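Reviewer comment 2.1 asked that we show a complete input and output for one of the modelled complexes. We chose the adenosine monophosphate case, as it is the one discussed in the main text.
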Amino acid sequence: MNPVNHLRTGLSVAEAQRVVLALAPQLGSETVATADALGRVLAEPVVSTRTLPPADNSAMDGYALRCADLAGATRETPVALRVAFEVPAGGSSPERALAPGEAARIFTGAPIPPGADAVVRQEDAEREGALVRMRGVPRPGENVRSAGEDVRKGELVLDCGAELGPAALGLLASLGRTVVAVRQRPRVAVVSGGDELVEPDTAPFDGKIVSSNSYTLSAQCRLAGAEPIYLGIARDTPDALEDRLRAGNRADLIVSSGGVSVGDRDYVRPVLEKLGCTLVFWGVQMKPGYPIVFGRFGDTGPLVFGLPGNPVSAMVTFEQFVRPVLRKMAGHRALFRPLVRATLAHDFEKSAGRMHFVRVFLEPKPDAAGEFVARSTGTQSSGVLRSMALAHGLLILPAAKTRLAAGERGLVQVLDEGFFAAHEPGF
Ligand code: AMP
Ligand code: MG
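Response of the prediction step:
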């Protein structure tokens, strides 16, 4: 039976997203150095083998004491304690307990001696030889970091699926975890197809253009946490494409661009089928980017996305379908780009039928903290990379709509969080 008969076509963006995500497997795990695990997804629950901090310790340089000994101390009627011993940071626990009427000189991080229940900062104490005078009564526990206030032994500290940021890496280090099990990063074979394409180190001649998709798609893979493997340019012949696509068969996913439309030399679909790929759908109701093909090589082979060749179509379809799939494969729980609601600076018009993704700037709305205005970045032709390079995000114009008017609000899928960044601290 010809699998083309089962090929779905004209899917909505949401349907196509459901289909690709349903077929995306989660990858296995690997052990990496904690120092190299930034941004990775934890593949094991981390249960603490330590209590942190291991013992009650001082949060300040000062004097450890017993609050009861200072009963009645005021500014006018100070109470003096005898400084019995010193507890340095990094030293072992003090050998003896504090006796009534005694204080211990203590430093930040040093263990609280038995018997003491608070630390008075040295700035609030008056030292005079072997005595220290206090002009107030601390609360029990003041300036004491209690054992286990961070982590208790046996406690689940980080669970599977946690994304490892700087604090999580520090926590793992504190627990003595120099290596950690994380989800594998998807390896993505990137293929560019087209007779007109040259690499950027060749000056374009005779109508040739530089294969910018090789750069954009590889960079998008990296941003999605995947590892791109660039397989070069395939000429518009079945043999050349077959050769490149075969080379991608050991990857977790193949992304090609170009050659997937209805032109005479658009060979991606027939070549994928010849190689045994089951095509799942072709064509999604979106602009830019209608001609996109998605398929899979058996149950365990790589997933394949044949993206349209136009530079912005390739990028926008990557964002909607490939990125969430890569994030699912890498174990992330949040698969999609954030959305912000923005007020439109001008009218946006389109024909009904497809969902449009419009390249926009996002600017803070004057006098409305946390609200934004969306404005087109310029020509929206699917070949114009410059308006994509400027865009903070993609304004979503729903399929059924023909117009969103100035002053209305729309949803913007955020690609570049730079517009959130402040030029001044603001506090
Ligand atoms: P296609 O989808 O093969 O019909 O390609 C559509 C248009 O996209 C072509 O006319 C090229 O201008 C452009 N294009 C295709 N592949 C690339 C690429 N790798 N880099 C930049 N532009 C491309
Ligand atoms: Mg082409």
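The CA atoms of residues 161 and 333 lie 7 Å apart. We note this here for comparison with the apo prediction described in Section 3.2.
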